[in-house]
């Protein structure tokens, strides 16, 4: 398989892809290293543009709402496609373009579109690539708000849908044969149970039936997984998470072929939710340490998952890096790391689990993940409180489920905090009148 990969000079070269463990070689100018790693791409890809002043190392923030032209001939050259320009900020921005080229390089994709949120990227993809009368096949554990949009909003626009169990190839093939499927959509890993999809295995039947494959890879990050190299047509990210990595900016992106991204971009003009230049700058700044952050988060999460799996007060651990995970072999074959999120079920009910969460000292009780600070939440309380216990159980959200997003704190500190919170949960279950039990 050959894909187009952006070089540091933003030109494209043909790069052979031979699997997730052997990344493509980017042939750039002789005065640079012949092989560029993800670590170097996060720092340098998309930078050193000819519009950036030579005295500036950092990418400037271009806050202008419109691009001015020298004369009428330049306007005509732009309109006829002979001279590139953004003309108006809703159509693009130079600061954002640096960010888009950086993500394209990491994802081994031809093109990337950045928008104001991850959900904005999902909606732009679905609206632009699935026509009225079209059909979507999605996994049952895809991002919940995306599922609600497909079921409740797209259905009003004449788009039908089928939701299948992840990795149930028979159900997928049945849906592909029964319907004229426009798009297959899935999260891998999924949130919060971290199920992993065999992207290559799913892409083959979808393509043979003319369906596009779109993978939301937010839980993995571009460092750990590259769906385009595995056969997906598009890869989505909430850049709010690992990509920016500091819990201080919201954004989303989609990467793929120039042809598909152009279609999405054209539709997105009308949606009118571009990423603002200041946000683009903050994401660029965050990305320069992404490889360091993600490596640390991978290591911490794996070590904590192994610790929890042996603890008597933990009933089950969900983490694709563990051999006990049902898709461990799939994850190992297509991921270079397993991410910083671990979900687990404690030995307790709804209220005992709340006590465990409340007893933690280091993490913030908050939604989101992927940042420098560790975050923890009880999905039954944080995300699905409006649903009954039976409704939650139907989608795999048990009352005793905890989702822990590990930041860049020291492993020993996080481990000690989790162990003391588990111990406090045990004490409170036996002696609820203790002052520390509330």
TrEMBL record:
Catalytic activity annotation: O-succinyl-L-homoserine + L-cysteine = L,L-cystathionine + succinate + H(+); O-phospho-L-homoserine + L-cysteine = L,L-cystathionine + phosphate
UniProtKB keywords: Pyridoxal phosphate
GO biological process annotation, one example: methionine biosynthetic process
Top-rank lineage group of the source organism: Eukaryota
Cofactor requirements of the protein: pyridoxal 5'-phosphate
One function term, GO molecular function aspect: cystathionine gamma-synthase activity
N6-(pyridoxal phosphate)lysine modified-residue sites: 241
Descriptive protein name: plant cystathionine gamma-synthase
